[in-house]
What does this fold into?
Amino acid sequence: MQIIPVASGKGGVGKSLLSANLAIALGQAGKKVVLADLDLGASNLHLVIGQNAPRTGIGTWLTGRSTFSDIIIPSEYENVRFIAGDSEIPGLSSLKVSQISSLIKQINALDADYLILDLGAGTHQIILDLFLLSPQGIIVTAPTVTATLNAYLFLKNVVFRLMYKSFKRGSNAEKWLKQLKKDASSLQRLYIPKMVEEIKQVDADSAAVFTSRMKIFRPRLIMNMIYDPKDADKAQRIKRSCNQYLGLEIEHLGIMYRDSLQDKALASRLPILIYKPNSVLSQAIYRIAEKILTSETVLFDSDYMPEPINTDSFDFLEEEANEDYYLKMSGLEDLVGSGTLSMGELAEMIKTQQYELTQLKKENTLLKSKLVKAARQGFKI
It folds into this structure.
């Protein structure tokens, strides 16, 4: 079974659109497909494939109200089964370690040719672990500055997570990495290839394990929502940045033009492949599916155990927040340094964020005034 986790790093770039329609395309090719909505807390994949909200899903299984086999339901599309998420569950990050371990065990045991996992946006450790269930995950992005930055940051976080999971507990490499993480600003200054060279000096065996897994790890990039052929250049720039700063080879899987027909398809509660199979967007998805069908299924080595870590402690949350900040800053430097982002694009992004902050402040002030007015009129708040 080829597991295909689909991530975005940022919401609103067409991750669920791709997941749903890719599952249908593979099913039409005669392959057994399971499509799973793991964007817990914001589950809406059933809408994209045109199904009513299922009565059972990840949430009912986690709460013991159904078995895992109960939540694997047939879809209206040939060879495609569906596992619904649950908008009542706060999100993957709120799940216990035992729940995540059980989920991973269940999805690894599924009987299918392809398992497509529609993951939530962001770089939480659990999302990274699910992305690393396969060396062949897909990252969906768009040519906007923020989408490009978030796609690169997601891949950078994934590489750091793979490094962490490649070092045995108590090894010199793990001690070196923990010491480095105590001064999170050091992460900002070190590129992965340079880190590997330093790790070789303290623990050659651990460095060799990580290097071998990096050779297997081949995430695939899709550039969505492009208007102009020049927008596709961003994918090649991200690829160069990953190679230069992360020591990571990624595959450019394809591009998808923005298509107004997608909105009409969604309003009609039909996937675009069904609504208009000859549309530009549908043909792009079919090309992507064809590449996947002709690709060989690749797995990490047998010693790789994607065990989730305990994220319950406040110490972990503080450490993760520090890492996120410094990785984000280093990501900006990487993309500007490699020419993926120009200084003009960076300035435009900052202006946009400043505008959004100003609007939020105005909304906050308005809400405060309404609350004060309501309190004066004697309403209970």
